[in-house]
Write a structure and sequence with these properties.
five-stranded mixed β-barrel, disordered N terminus, globular, alpha/beta, OB fold (Dihydrolipoamide Acetyltransferase, E2P)
């Protein structure tokens, strides 16, 4: 009978040590620089046609609010080729998700005094992540933005 509590105790200790190691790993990623994320880290459980609600934002995205991040994506087509200071970063090169996928877009504001040229290639950017709903009329077009952005080469 003593083996059951002992086995339970060992399993519990193992689970706690794994959880502690994972948390320590997450803490070291954030020290000394921005957190590297992907669009998967900020996506919502949003069905096509479903309206955006703030309660759909994940704990991970909320934890990144106001913090520096690195993210990779594609620039939305622009009317300018050079001197771009604001653009929309898209999850994919061609947005096949339609306008109902506001979490597939991030509004980007380049650092003052800097700009970027349009490219079809993916860009990696660094900036301060902000949860900020962008609406035109009643339609939500984006729910995230990056400020003070620099382009990582």
């Amino acid at each position: 009978m003593k083996t059951i509590p002992t086995a339970f105790g060992l399993v519990l200790c193992l689970l706690l040590s794994i959880a502690t190691a994972a948390r320590a790993d997450d803490d070291t990623k954030n020290k000394g620089g921005p957190t590297d994320i992907s669009f998967d880290d900020i996506k919502l459980d949003l069905e096509t046609g479903e309206k955006f609600r703030k309660d759909l934002i994940s704990k991970k995205a909320k934890g990144l609010d106001g913090k520096p991040i690195v993210i990779r994506g594609y620039m939305s087509p622009s009317f300018k080729a050079d001197g771009i200071t604001e653009f929309v970063l898209m999850r994919n090169g061609r947005c096949k998700f339609g306008v109902d996928a506001a979490h597939h877009f991030v509004r980007v504001h380049i650092k003052e005094g800097h700009s970027i040229s349009y490219t079809l290639r993916p860009v990696t950017i660094v900036g301060s992540f902000k949860i900020k709903q962008f609406k035109v009329g009643k339609k939500t077009w984006a729910i995230y933005e990056l400020n003070d952005v620099s382009i990582k080469k």
